[in-house]
Design brief:
about 425 residues; alpha+beta; 28 strands; 5-stranded mixed β-sheet
Length: about 425
């Protein structure tokens, strides 16, 4: 039987009227369940997101609290390290010295010709240079730290070198007496010592002569001179300890300016020690003029050279009997040396620091600088490669004769005039440099 179009429409109408309501109800129920499931899932996601947000906020708050605690701890540590931490030499206020005008001295530069540079091999630096019988002697040290440092006295003619003696610690100065004995200033972490090595036992034994004054250990010894009469003069930088070596003691006194440096004389015959001059802001160098019996003393912090009679006792720097012979120096003076014509050679360990002298009256800021690391302190006084390393002045006329400069970079730790040449020791260098005059 054939179904027509009208019959088909009637069948579909009857089916829709019969099945449609049930189908509509089923679709409605399915949509409602789907909506409820979606809403529940949305609520779960919202709860989870809220929980994650709360956890993030809690972690962030904890981090912020820890950051505040860490910042406060860092600030407290910084305040302690730079302001409150005790220091061995509390700074004293002083008046910064003036700078002199241009001296008009002839200019000379250290030689860079390798043929004129005397290589000392594996040594790390030179602290003192002397000449005797046409040979040059240098105190050279090795070792990465003072606690492991040994120093050798090296004799050289530029071609051959020989070790004369070795000492435990830092050999900061030495001088020959008329009998040929060696007098040495030696530093160890325990303190300074004035020693003697007899000419017939060089390298065999070093005798400790002076280790304390009035029951107190010697501080950092910087230089020694021996007079024709046998008396031995030696310089003590100041009240700073010698634990970290001469360079550290000098830098501490330069910042602190305690004015506790002094020069003493030891009489081997009477075995007595007397103070010649006190009140020096870093006694960093000595020279004895035998012809006039005058002692010249480097004052590191005051940038001047004091002069006093070798026979004087109990003087104060700047007081009666001890006046400044040369002042307003362009750098902080260290080692001194005299030639046969009584020309005084002055080495400069560091260039004059405008920051330091601008704050000469501020004990607070210099106290902060004293608490800085050694490398940071060095940046305050570093001697530039083209800076003045040394000068020469006539002690008779007071006229400036030479101004020495040139590479390599580093403080001038030693110098010694030999005929028409001046030899230099440069901190950290493994050679002796020279310049013709």
């Amino acid at each position: 039987m054939r179904i027509g179009f009208v019959e088909l429409l009637l069948i579909l109408l009857i089916a829709s009227l019969t099945i449609g309501p049930s189908a509509a109800l089923w679709v409605d129920r399915w949509l409602r369940r789907a909506n409820r499931a979606s809403a529940a899932a949305a609520r779960r996601r919202a709860v989870q997101e809220a929980q994650r947000t709360a956890e993030r906020e809690e972690v962030l708050q904890r981090f912020q609290k820890l950051s505040i605690v860490f910042t406060l701890a860092a600030v407290a540590a910084l305040v302690w390290a730079l302001v409150l931490r005790p220091i061995e030499a509390p700074p004293k206020a002083y008046t910064a010295p003036d700078h002199r005008q241009a001296s008009g001295a002839a200019q000379a530069e250290l030689s860079t010709d390798r043929r004129e540079i005397w290589d000392l091999g594996g040594y790390q630096g030179v602290d003192c240079i002397r000449t005797r019988d046409g040979l040059v002697y240098a105190a050279a040290w090795n070792g990465s730290s003072l606690k492991k440092r040994t120093s050798d006295l090296v004799r050289t003619d530029g071609g051959n070198a020989a070790v004369i003696l070795s000492v435990e610690g830092e050999l900061t100065g030495f001088a020959f007496d008329a009998a040929g004995d060696l007098w040495l200033t030696v530093l160890t972490p325990a303190g300074g010592t004035l020693c003697r090595a007899r000419h017939d036992s060089w390298g065999a034994s070093v005798e400790q002569v002076v280790t304390q004054i009035d029951g107190a250990p010697l501080g950092a010894l910087s230089a020694v001179e021996v007079g024709a009469d046998g008396k031995v003069y030696f310089a003590v930088v100041g009240q700073e300890s010698a634990e970290q070596g001469l360079e550290s003691a000098l830098r501490t006194e330069l910042l602190a300016h305690t004015g506790t440096g002094a020069v003493y004389v030891y009489d081997p015959a009477a075995r007595t020690v007397e103070q010649v001059v006190g009140g020096i802001a870093g006694a960093s160098g000595l020279a004895l003029d035998e012809r006039t019996q005058t002692l010249y003393i480097s004052d590191l912090g005051s940038r001047c050279i004091w002069s006093a009679a070798a026979s004087a006792r109990g003087l104060t720097a700047g007081g009666k009997g001890c006046q400044s012979s040369f002042s307003g120096l362009p750098g902080y003076p260290g080692t001194l040396a005299l030639d046969e014509d009584s020309t005084l050679y002055i080495s400069y360990r560091w260039a004059s620091s405008s920051w330091l002298e601008r704050h000469a009256g501020s004990t607070f800021l210099r106290g902060v600088a004293l608490r800085l690391s050694e490398s940071m302190q060095e940046n305050l006084f570093s001697l530039p490669a083209d800076g003045i390393r040394a000068e020469a002045v006539s002690t008779a006329s007071g006229s400036w004769l030479w101004s020495f400069s040139g590479k390599p970079q580093g403080s001038s730790s030693a110098l010694c005039p030999v005929e028409n040449r001046v030899y230099f020791g440069i901190a950290g260098e493994k050679a002796l440099y020279s310049v013709r005059v």
